[in-house]
Amino acid sequence: MQSRRLFLAVVIAVGVGASIPAYGADQDGAVSATGTDWDAPGPFPITVQAGFAHTVYRPATLGADGRRHPVIVWGNGTGATPLAYDNLLRHWATHGFVVAAANTTMANSGQAMVDGARWLLQENDRPGSVYHGKIDPAEIGSVGHSQGGAGAINAGADPIVGTTIALQPGPRAAPEKLRGPALFLAGEKDGIVDPVKMVLPLYERAPQVPGVYAVLTGAGHFEPVGDGGRYRGVMTAWFYYQLNNDPRAANEFTGPSCGLCADPAWLDVRRRGLTAAIG
After folding, report:
1. What is the pLDDT of residue 156?
2. Could you give all domains of the chain from N- to C-terminal order, each with its CATH number?
3. CA 184 to chain centre
4. How many CB atoms neighbour CB 18 within 10 A?
5. Which pLDDT score is estimated for 14?
6. What is the mean pLDDT of residues 128-136?
7. Cα separation of 57 and 85, whole Å?
8. Which among 205, 202, 142, 140 has a CA at the least distance from the CA of 168?
9. Is 24 a residue whose pLDDT tops 50?
10. What pTM did the predictor assign?
C-alpha cells in the first residue's frame, strides 16, 4: 500500500485536471437517507493559507457572532500533498471547520497532524493572531486517506483529538490507543486496502471507543482523491455529529434506523457504543 504503485496513481490522479470534479459538483445528487445533503457546500466563503508545515483551509471570516470553530487535521496518502484532496478540504472549510492539512507526503505517524492542531491552539491563545479566541479547543477531529488514514488513527491517541475518521487506512496504526469515537471507511473495490483484511481488523481492535465501520459500494482506492468522492457526505456528517453535536448528523449514525444503515450505497455497516458518543 505504501508502494511506488500508490505514489504514481496519486500523481496521475492529481495531474489530470479532468479527474478532479469542480468543487460544488454533487456526487450523484446524493441526499442521505435522513434527508440531508451533506455533499453540498456550506455557507462560509473560505480562504486557503499555504505554510511550510501545513496548509490551512478556513472560513475567510472567523469568529462571526462569537463562533468558535471546530478543527479538522488531515493526513495525505503516500506521496500526496493536500493539493490531491483540495476540493474536499475546501468543502469542510465552507461548513465552518478550520482544516490544518499536513504538507507531509508520509503521514503515517500522525505527528504532523497533531502538530497542526497544536499550532492552531497556540494561535488561539496568541493575542493578535487571526485565530485568537476563535478556535474551539474541545472540538478537534483527525482524518486522513490511506497512509494518512493510519496517521489519523495514530493522531487519535493524543488527548487533544476527540474523534477520528480512518478513510481506507493503511495497516501501520494503533487503534487500541484511540481515545474518542472513530469512523472506519472502506471501499468495496479497493485493491490496495482490502476492506475485510485490513480495515475491518482495525475497527475490531478498537473496542474501547464508540465506532462505525462501513464499506462503500463500488469504491476503489482513489475514490477520495479530489473532492472526497462519495465519501464526502458521510465524513461531513460525522464531523457535524462529533464536533458540532448536530442532531441531524447524529441520526445518520445512531438509532435502529440510522441513515447510513438505510443507505443502499453502503455495505456491511457495523456500529458499537454510539449512544454515548455525542457530546
Report:
1. 98
2. 4-272 (3.40.50.1820)
3. 10
4. 5
5. 37
6. 97
7. 12
8. 202
9. no
10. 0.89
